[in-house]
Amino acid sequence: xWKEAYLANVLSADPMELVCLLYQHAQDAVxxxxxxxxxxxxxxxxxxxxxxxxxxxxxxGSLDHNTGGGISTNLKELYTYMMHRLTxxxxxxxxxxxxxxxxxxxxxxxxxxxxxxxQATVSHTGSTSTVPVWQQESALEPAGHDWSA
Length: 149
Fold this sequence. Notes:
Blueprint: H1 2-11, H2 15-38, H3 42-61, H4 65-92, H5 95-125
Helix pairs in contact: 2-3, 2-5, 3-4, 4-5
């Protein structure tokens, strides 16, 4: 029964809601990986990290580079960086890279939630005077870091 409800929810979700769900689930997987690292549960840690990498891969695969411009390019580099850090955390059994990725996912997830809320507000009011957050490059780019390293 829960599977049907889940599928109905996902199938009826708008694209921005799906992106927000991917961020939330990726963040949850990283949080789980951190807990498994603390508990020294190697298999569960590896599974949680693999899940997070797969979810970030979905986010990366959903980028539209034709219309996304610089934002999609920067997000692609950031997703690649996060997947690299997750792999490093798993190999070196370190919490630091996991904490960093969890923080990045939280920041990006919040930005997408705000963009979604702003889009809903614009849709309800019919106003087009504001530029949506997701179209503002600075809103989705953490400043001061080269993610291609």
